[in-house]
Amino acid sequence: MYQSLTIVGNVGRDPEMRYTPSGQAVTSFSVATNRQYTANSGETVKETIWFRVTAWGKQAETCNKFVKKGMKVLVEGRITGDPATGGPKVFKKQDGSFGSSFEVSANTVRFLSSRDDDGGGDGGGGAMGGGQFTGPSDEDIPF
To answer: Structural domain tally of the chain?
Structure first.
C-alpha cells in the first residue's frame, strides 16, 4: 500500500531545525494552501488549509538554510495522523473558532520562489485555486 500527497503553498513561518539524539537533522515549518471559489449562494468563499511539514536528514538542513516565511514551496510526502486521534491536529483560533492542521513527512521539498522573492511573484507556481494567496498573518498561524 502507498500514499502520497502533493501540496503547493506559502510558508507560514521560518523553519525550526533540531537534531535527534542520534544526530539526524529534523526541520519543521508550516505551509498554507489557499483556494477561493463562489458558493451556490453567490458568496465568495476563501478556504485556507494548514500543513505542518517535517523534513529529515540532508533535506532538513537544506530547508533550514533556504526556506523562509512567505516563499512558495511544493512539498511531496505522506500524511501522518495525530497520535492521540489518528486525524488532523485540531486547535482553537484567537477568535474562538476551531481550525486544523495536517502533519506531512516530506519526501521532496521544491522551492518555487527564491529567498529574495519573499513569496511575491509567480515563481513558476502560478495562482493557486483561482486566487493569489497573500500569506497569513502571525495570529492565524496555529503553531
So the answer is: 1
